[in-house]
Design goal:
60% helix
């Protein structure tokens, strides 16, 4: 998708880019009723649509379809943008374009939620709003289940079912520069500094073993072989394997 030049008959390599001052003049002209200003604003911001749809490239959707849907979001943003607000147009438009694309993807999602689950979820949401207004506090799942006279687990399943999946590339903040994505806020324990240092320590400790000890440790703990299988493979007794294994582990414990 990133390398596609022509989308919906538009040559993306030749899309114009409007400066902020030009944008303000065109918005003023459009709101004054000048014909053609709106079209120039649309054409001058198609690159914005292009940058947004690249975030959805892993959804398996046709880029032309996403581009058209993104353009609808762009047009809505142009028609509703208020020059009086001290905000960049891109900051205002990007969430609207993303919202339009997300609605399109939700409506065309192959994963369907059963009507009964949807009904429970919507009733739970209505009950929540009503109880929140009456009591001034957020009701618990158990209270919602009691109000609806359905098992607590069904309420949980129903509310989870109507939640829209969030992409790791979903922007959560944008001030006109590079956006902060969901993935930027998620830690990865599998690649932590602690595990990296631990891996280095183990590798250094293994270097202190003899070749036979390394072979036994690899067969036992990396390939899951039994002591008897190791003994058969390297031609020694099971008792010798056990003795060598214990000695190697004792050696490793000195360094790990």
């Amino acid at each position: 998708m990133i390398n596609k030049v022509e989308i919906c008959g538009v040559n993306t390599a030749k899309l114009p880019v409007l400066k902020n001052e030009e944008m303000r003049k065109l918005f003023t002209a459009m709101q004054s009723g000048e014909t053609g200003a709106r079209e120039k604003l649309i054409q001058g911001n198609l690159r914005l649509v292009l940058s947004v749809i690249q975030r959805f490239s892993n959804r398996g959707e046709y880029v032309d379809d996403l581009f058209q849907v993104g353009c609808i979001g762009l047009i809505k943003a142009i028609d509703n943008f208020d020059l009086g607000q001290n905000v960049r147009f891109s900051t205002y438009a990007v969430p609207m374009i993303i919202g339009e694309i997300r609605r399109y993807l939700r409506d065309n999602n192959s994963i369907r939620v059963s009507r009964s689950l949807r009904d429970i979820a919507y009733k739970a949401l209505q009950a929540r709003e009503r109880m929140l207004a009456e009591n001034g506090t957020e009701p618990s799942i158990s209270q919602l289940a009691e109000q609806l006279e359905v098992p607590r687990e069904e309420v949980v399943f129903a509310l989870d079912a109507i939640q829209e999946p969030v992409s790791l590339f979903e922007p959560i903040y944008n001030d006109g520069g590079d956006p902060i994505l969901v993935m930027d806020q998620i830690s990865d324990d599998t690649n932590s500094d602690e595990l990296w240092l631990e891996s280095i320590t183990i590798n250094e400790a293994l270097k202190r073993l003899s070749e036979r000890e390394k072979h036994i440790m690899a067969l036992r703990f990396f390939y899951g072989r039994t002591q008897m299988e190791v003994a058969d493979e390297i031609g020694i007794s099971q008792a010798q394997v056990s003795r060598l294994e214990k000695a190697a582990l004792k050696q490793l414990k000195k360094y790990v």
